[in-house]
Design goal:
- By secondary structure, the chain is mostly helical.
- It is built from 47 helices and nine strands.
- The strands form three sheets. A five-stranded parallel beta sheet has the order 2-3-4-1-5, with helices on both faces. The chain has a two-stranded antiparallel ribbon with strand order 6-7. A two-stranded antiparallel ribbon has the order 8-9.
- The chain is flat.
């Protein structure tokens, strides 16, 4: 399947359709190498199933040989040539190289017309000419001559070429430009190739490829050149290199060199490009040729490459010595005090040996790059500085600092790779100085939480020890203590460490370093370690006293996000509404600061908060953003959270396939790392879906795992939040002792936390287990103390349970009132499966506008109620429990129902439309 080429496919299909109807014609596809012209021709051939298809491809080596392409194209028809009129047969035989004498071009054209007309009389003919820019002129003239005279014949000609047809004989054909893929289609094509590639790496690939499908398939997505922190041209793959080889070979050397300079400069700034190109010998005539060919355009002091891939191809094909000379010329062309960093970059690109002074210059400029270009650009600079640093320890510190910036820029994959490189060059203690907390954070988002806990505490203790050794009086503008004080300051300081060897350089002065920030960093790491224990289900449930206030008081969103309590903890303590605003404020701050790494971890939490507070539409938008940031390697645990949330939404809507897929994906991500919080979430939502679908036994098995010690899904917070689900499932399968035990647990939690949801759940659980004379009291209390919003799932759930109980005690009008409110609430939030379940309950009250068992059905009221429940898959025992009938009586009703409706088995009840005359809406399976 071709991605994003529907318009071109439709145009080619029209040509084939007209040819089938006897209206011959042609079309020329025009676009740059790799844009997909050949793929479109192949697709058209596959669609032309009833056509006789003939191919040829232009060859630059044969472009000066008359009729070389025609021999390839019409060779399969050579046995039909002798039947043509004598002069035409002799001319075409000579053109095809099968006979003596010169080939008269007019007679050859006439012979092509005659031959194709004869063949098309038996079967439509499709001629395909690829790489037409290299087809010899004689063949091009013969084919266009013939096509003009075959308008009433079943012949179609499809031609593809990379150059403009405006000055060629092919211009007589209708031209269909093949444009680069739009960004959404390019992203889909890249995702098909690379699966879950991270957003920074994907953006790098999309920028390099410029919508070219072959480039999207060929660029080195798994190497450092394809990383989100990479800069400048990237090496080409073999097919992409071959696709541009002929076009590069056709360019004058000076024009090719000019393209290399422009590609190496990569910003399009006219002055340095002009100076460097002149220094390297590019003449004004080369500029003119580049302009005339449409390769370069100069506007407002900028040089724009009209074909960026061609420039990249020129850089890729340039010898290493020429590339180094280009970068050195660009460095020399960058005068002035504001260009030191860019000049150092080009000097470094021109090196093939270490250079301590240049490495220091690059690292010195990292703060400026950070301020002007962001953390990913700073990571690029430090990565390059490390590459030309001879001392392994110093290189390791710079790599760790680059990893820190890559993390801040949201390129988690690059951060992990850089940190791995750093670990191979220096010690863990040194990495702690350069990238405090980063090893633990990376492990937390994509690895083993137990190991993350160890790493976070290790870094916190190391930093605290350094703080204890650093007198506060020494902290000031003129002194740099070896204490990390924040991500930005840590990275810059470690980029230029304290002298430790002959390749080390003196550290720069960091004005305004604050010892207090170091203490904040230690506290933040220890808080993360404590929350990692909670993720593992091992922490102590402490009240949230003062935690939200600390978030609000923290001005930096980067630090505030570390203070945010996990969403599930806030829900557990009944603080969803109070926590939503701090979450929204921090999220806005992170977006404004471009801190993608911190955002990727908190967005699923924000979505959870939004769902819990009834902001369903906003929550789904946040969830999509979280999926986008967490895609690709390096964020497995975050992505598992996203899939769990999607499973929950799908369960509410009754989408069984999406639930199963989402749960499977969440477990595949969480199980290898043994993350009880995430594995437990998958169990919970799977069990919740089973409860939604009426499979109480499966729901009970999955939900019980949340509170079973030693189980992979055991987690106390999730067990509490899922208590009502578990108690309802246990009651429905007759496990009342288990239900009572879990009810007691939620009562204890409700008394401790005083959370409204917990109080409502405790009353609802007691109601499910209570005798008839006490149940209504508990149901009324559950409705009264719970969430009062009409769009609350919990409120609608309680009203459903209350309404079912009222129906069972034959208070049908009261039941209908609660059930209507519940159904409206479920529909308001899009919980379609629960709304349908509630509407079924409402129908069973017999108070609707069309009572069951009315004049349009042969069933009695009670038979209709039994039939509806049986259609949902309930057993006779379960139906009896719902309607207060014995299983034997239910069985008697079932026999009568099947007899009256003419059915052979109860499974066929699923195809009955109970609201429209008991009609069978689908055939039985």
């Amino acid at each position: 399947m071709l991605q994003g080429r529907e318009r071109e496919q439709n145009e080619l299909s029209r040509v084939l359709t007209r040819a089938r109807a006897g209206h011959g014609g042609g079309m020329l596809l025009w676009g740059e190498p790799g844009i997909g012209k050949t793929a479109l021709l192949r697709d058209a051939e596959q669609r032309a199933t009833e056509f006789r298809v003939l191919h040829c491809r232009g060859n630059s080596a044969e472009s000066g040989v008359d009729f070389a392409a025609l021999r390839e194209l019409l060779g399969p028809l050579a046995d039909r040539v002798p039947a043509l009129p004598g002069p035409q047969a002799r001319a075409l035989t000579a053109a095809l190289g099968r006979g003596p004498g010169p080939a008269d071009r007019f007679l050859v054209g006439a012979a092509v017309v005659s031959l194709l007309a004869v063949v098309a009389a038996d079967q439509p003919v499709l001629l395909i000419v690829d790489d037409a820019q290299s087809v010899d002129l004689a063949t091009a003239r013969a084919l266009t001559f013939a096509l003009r005279r075959l308008g009433g014949v079943r012949v179609a000609l499809l031609v593809a070429m990379r150059d403009s047809p405006a000055t060629t004989v092919w211009q007589s054909l209708r031209v269909l430009p093949v444009a680069p893929l739009p960004d959404p289609e390019a992203r889909r094509l890249l995702a098909r190739r690379a699966g879950g590639v991270g957003a920074p790496r994907a953006n790098r690939m999309l920028k390099l490829a410029g919508g070219n499908p072959l480039a999207l398939r060929e660029f080195p997505i798994d190497t450092e050149d394809g990383a989100g922190i990479a800069w400048g041209p990237a090496p080409f793959g073999p097919r992409l290199r071959a696709a541009f080889a002929d076009r590069l070979a056709a360019l004058d050397p000076g024009v090719r060199l000019l393209l290399v300079v422009t590609a190496a400069e990569d910003r399009g700034t006219l002055c340095p490009i002009t100076s460097a190109a002149t220094e390297l010998g590019v003449a004004p005539a080369d500029w003119e040729r580049a302009f005339e060919a449409g390769l370069l355009v100069v506007t407002d002091g900028r040089v724009d490459m009209r074909h960026r891939l061609l420039g990249g191809a020129a850089y890729d094909a340039a010898p290493p010595a020429q590339r180094r000379a280009v970068h050195l010329a660009l460095a020399a062309a960058l005068p002035g005090s504001g260009a030191e960093q860019l000049r150092a970059w080009h000097l470094a690109a021109g090196l093939d040996t270490p250079d301590p002074e240049l490495a220091r210059a690059l690292a010195d400029g990292a703060p400026r790059v950070l301020r002007h270009n962001g953390p990913l650009a700073a990571a690029v600079v430090l990565r390059r500085a490390a590459a030309i640093t001879a001392d392994p320890a110093t290189a390791g510190l710079r790599l760790a600092a680059a990893a820190q910036f890559a993390w801040e820029g949201g390129d988690i994959e690059s951060a992990r790779r850089l940190l791995t490189l750093a670990e191979s060059r220096t010690t863990p203690a040194a990495i702690t100085t350069a990238a405090a907390g980063l090893p633990g954070l990376l492990e937390l988002v994509a690895g083993d939480p137990a190991r993350a806990h160890t790493l976070l505490l290790r870094d916190a203790d190391a930093i605290a020890a350094r703080l204890a050794q650093t007198p506060a009086t020494l902290v000031g503008p003129s002194t740099v203590p070896p204490v990390p004080t924040g991500p930005e300051e840590v990275a810059v300081r470690s980029a230029n460490p304290v002298p430790s060897g002959r390749d080390s350089e003196p550290a720069p002065t960091l004005a305004g370093s604050r010892l207090e920030r170091g203490a904040d960093l230690v506290a933040g790491l220890r808080l993360l370690a404590e929350r990692t224990e909670w993720v593992l289900g091992q922490g102590v449930d402490r009240p949230m006293d003062g935690q939200l206030e600390a978030v609000v008081a923290e001005p930096s969103p980067t630090y505030a996000v570390q203070l945010l309590p996990p969403a599930a903890q806030l829900l557990e303590w009944g603080l969803a509404e109070a926590g939503l605003e701090p979450y929204l404020t921090v999220a806005a701050g992170l977006r404004a600061a471009g801190d993608r790494a911190a955002a990727v971890g908190m967005l699923p939490q924000l979505a959870t908060m939004q769902f819990a507070t009834g902001r369903w539409e906003a929550g789904e938008t946040t969830l999509e953003e979280a999926f986008d940031l967490a895609s690709g390697p390096g964020a497995d645990n975050i992505l598992a959270q996203c899939w769990n949330l999607r499973a929950r939404l799908a369960a509410q809507r009754g989408d069984a396939d999406l639930v199963a897929d989402s749960v499977e994906r969440a477990l595949a991500l969480s199980r290898p790392h043994a993350v009880p919080l995430l594995t437990g979430g998958a169990y919970w939502h799977h069990g919740f879906h089973a409860l939604t679908a009426g499979d109480a036994e499966a729901a009970y098995r999955r939900l019980r795992a949340l509170s079973q010690p030693g189980h992979e899904a055991a987690h106390p917070t999730l067990a509490r939040l899922a208590t009502l689900d578990l108690v309802e499932a246990a009651c429905r399968v007759g496990r009342f002792d288990d239900a009572a035990a879990h009810s007691d647990h939620i009562v204890l939690w409700a008394r401790r936390s005083r959370a409204r949801w917990a109080l409502a759940a405790a009353y609802a659980c007691r109601a499910l287990l209570a005798e008839e004379d006490r149940a209504e009291h508990y149901y009324r209390r559950a409705v009264a103390v719970g969430d009062s919003r009409h769009g609350s799932f919990g409120r609608a759930r309680t009203q459903l349970l209350y309404g079912k109980w009222l129906r069972r005690v034959r208070r049908r009008r009261d039941a209908a009132e609660q059930l209507r409110l519940a159904a409206d609430g479920f529909e308001l939030i899009g919980a379609t499966a629960w709304a349908a379940r509630t509407r079924t309950e409402l129908d069973l009250t017999g108070t609707g506008t069309k009572p069951a068992g009315g004049s349009d059905t042969p069933l009695t009221v009670q038979e209709s109620q039994v039939a509806r429940l049986a259609a949902q898959g309930l057993t006779n025992r379960e139906i009896g429990a719902e309607l207060f009938l014995s299983p034997r009586t239910v069985g008697h009703h079932m026999s009568r129902i099947l007899e009256k409706l003419g059915l052979t088995g109860r499974s066929e009840l699923r195809g009955i439309d109970f609201d429209n005359g008991m009609r069978l809406t689908r055939p039985p399976l």
